[in-house]
Amino acid sequence: MKKINILILLILSTLSLESIAADCEQVIESNDALQFNSKAMTVSAACETVTVTLKHTGQLPAKIMGHNWVLTKSSDFMAVAQAGGAAGPQNNYVPQEDSRVIAYSKIIGGGESTTVTFSTTDLSSSESYTFFCSFPGHYAIMQGSLTVID
Questions:
Q1: Residue 83 lies in a domain
Q2: For the chain, what is the HEC assignment?
Q3: Is 5 domain-assigned?
Q4: What is the DSSP string of 57-96?
Q5: Which of 6, 42, 75, 108 has the most CB atoms around its CB within 10 Å?
Q6: pLDDT by residue (tens digit) across 96-143?
Q7: pTM summary value
Q8: In the chain, how many domains are there?
Q9: Three-class SS state of 37
Q10: Is residue 111 part of a domain?
C-alpha cells in the first residue's frame, strides 16, 4: 500500500510540473474574420521565458488581412496600438524601440505561423497585460488579457 501511495504522489507531482511547463508555451490562432481563438492567456511566474506561437488559419494574404501578436501592460495598450499604424508595415505595425512593448511577432497572412519568445523577468502577477493585433484597425476587436500566475 505504501508503494502505491508513493507512486501516486510521483505521478501527481509530474503532472503538476507538466502543467507549469505548458504555461511557458502558448499557441493562439487568428483568422480572416478578425478574431483570435482565445480572449485570455495564462502563464506561470515560474517560466523564465514564454513562447507564443501565432497561427493564421485564414486564407487572405498579410497585406490584406495580416495579423500579429503584441503584448503590453493594459495601461499602455491603446497608446501602443494607435502608434502601430504610424510605424507602418515595414515595422510590423509596432512602434520600434518603444519600452511599452513587452513582446511582438511579425505580421503573417493566411496559412502562416510565427513565434515570439520573451523574458518574464519584468512581468508581475499583480499587473494587468493586454495582447492584441496591431494591424491597423484590428486592435479594436482582436485583443485579450494575459495573466501571470504565481
A1: yes
A2: CHHHHHHHHHHHHHHHHHHHHHHCEEEEEECCCCCECCCEEEEECCCCEEEEEEEECCCCCHHHHCECCEEEEHHHHHHHHHHHHHHCHHHCCCCCCCCCEEEECCCECCCCEEEEEEECCCCCCCCCEEEECCCCCHHHCCEEEEEEEC
A3: no
A4: -S-S-HHHH-B--EEEEGGGHHHHHHHHHHH-GGGTTS-T
A5: 108
A6: 999 999 999 999 999 999 999 999 999 999 999 999 999 999 999 999
A7: 0.85
A8: 1
A9: coil
A10: yes
Q: How far apart are the C-alpha atoms of 75 and 54, rounded to whole Å? A: 23
Domain that holds residue 110: 23-149
Establish if 13 belongs to a structural domain.
no
- The residue among 134, 127, 133, 130 whose CA lies nearest residue 144 is 130
